[in-house]
Amino acid sequence: MKSSKLIFLLSITLFCVSACNSHDSTNQISNSNHQSITDKKAFNPETQDHQTSDQLSFETILAGKNPTSNFSIDAEHNFFQLKIINKSKLIITFSLVNNETGKEILVDQVKPNKIWTWNSSTTYPKGLDSGKYTIQYRSNGNNMNGIAYGQLSSTPK
């Protein structure tokens, strides 16, 4: 009986260690205030490739003073949905910029304790240009609390 309990305990320990060390689909980046921000990309283990069609393109924890979300849009998946959840008592201002053209695509605000959503097809019926994009979040120099989700799609939703 003791050996089965020991095997069970070792199995749980091995599972926890392997789960803590898994970095396949998560990249850690830091903002200027050294707050940790996690960008997650959808990963398809069958093709060993990141897929973006109707999958989560990124999830960014909004903490600190200047968090950012960085992502890429390709020609086949050029429709983008953004959801920002503001969990703080401060207004969060954000801007979406195409890094390659420098064009500011969107600037808006999320009121305190509110959820804000946007679908690119409402403003860009043919989709966004392919390329690398950055979303910069600000709250008048104050620390913010929230989360942002971005999703790419091959069709407007």
Outline the biggest β-sheet. 4 strands, antiparallel
**How much of the residues is beta strand, in percent?**
over 45%
Q: What is the name of the CATH topology?
A: Jelly Rolls
Question: What is the end-to-end distance?
Answer: 56 Å
Please state the second-level CATH architecture: Sandwich
**Oligomerization state of this entry?**
single chain
How many β-strand runs?
A: 12
Rg measurement, Å: 19 Å
Strand order of the largest sheet: 5-12-7-10
> Number of folding domains?
1
Shape: globular
Q: Which residue ranges are poorly predicted, with pLDDT under 50 across at least 5 consecutive positions?
A: 16-54
CATH class: Mainly Beta
Task: List SSEs in N-to-C order.
Answer: HEEEEEEEEEEHEE
What portion of residues is helical? 10-25%
